[in-house]
Amino acid sequence: MNEPISTVTSVDGATSYMLSVLQQPKTSRACGYGEKAFEQRRPIDPPPIIELHIFDNYAQEETQVQVFGTFFLVATIESVSPYEKPAQSSNDELMIGISVSHMQCPSLGKSAFFVFPDLSVRRSGSYRLTFTLYSLFTDYLSALSGFFPILGV
């Protein structure tokens, strides 16, 4: 995969968490509103993929991800169009699909991944996604995607 475009680190005592946006959304087509929105929607392409690394601050090394069920990532969207104020629309008004991803570990390794294959945007414009990591044991951590256009219906 390509080098991460956005990396954010948070320190929580003995452990550090790092989020990297490995696959940035590039574009999509607006799906609109109403009954046909679900039928006509096209997911954001390519689907965003975010990687989580966990570091042991005392050993100063990356650790194996061992607490699979405690982490989840939430995607929210914000408009960056020059004519629209970001606070004008709520996340539910702009985006449909599954905005929560559970952690996936392809093997017992040091990386975990979150994939968002089912996100669609209702209106044309320029947007970016914020990915917020939640855990049962720590505070949250966020990473931003790059800007991407949504084309008209």
UniProtKB/TrEMBL annotation:
<dbReference type="GO" id="GO:0005737">
    <property type="term" value="C:cytoplasm"/>
</dbReference>
<dbReference type="InterPro" id="IPR021740">
    <property type="entry name" value="Velvet"/>
</dbReference>
<keyword id="KW-0963">Cytoplasm</keyword>
<protein>
    <recommendedName>
        <fullName>Velvet domain-containing protein</fullName>
    </recommendedName>
</protein>
<keyword id="KW-0804">Transcription</keyword>
<keyword id="KW-0539">Nucleus</keyword>
<dbReference type="Pfam" id="PF11754">
    <property type="entry name" value="Velvet"/>
</dbReference>
<dbReference type="GO" id="GO:0005634">
    <property type="term" value="C:nucleus"/>
</dbReference>
<keyword id="KW-0805">Transcription regulation</keyword>
<comment type="similarity">
    <text>Belongs to the velvet family. VeA subfamily.</text>
</comment>
<dbReference type="InterPro" id="IPR037525">
    <property type="entry name" value="Velvet_dom"/>
</dbReference>
<feature type="domain" description="Velvet">
    <location>
        <begin position="12"/>
        <end position="153"/>
    </location>
</feature>
<dbReference type="InterPro" id="IPR038491">
    <property type="entry name" value="Velvet_dom_sf"/>
</dbReference>
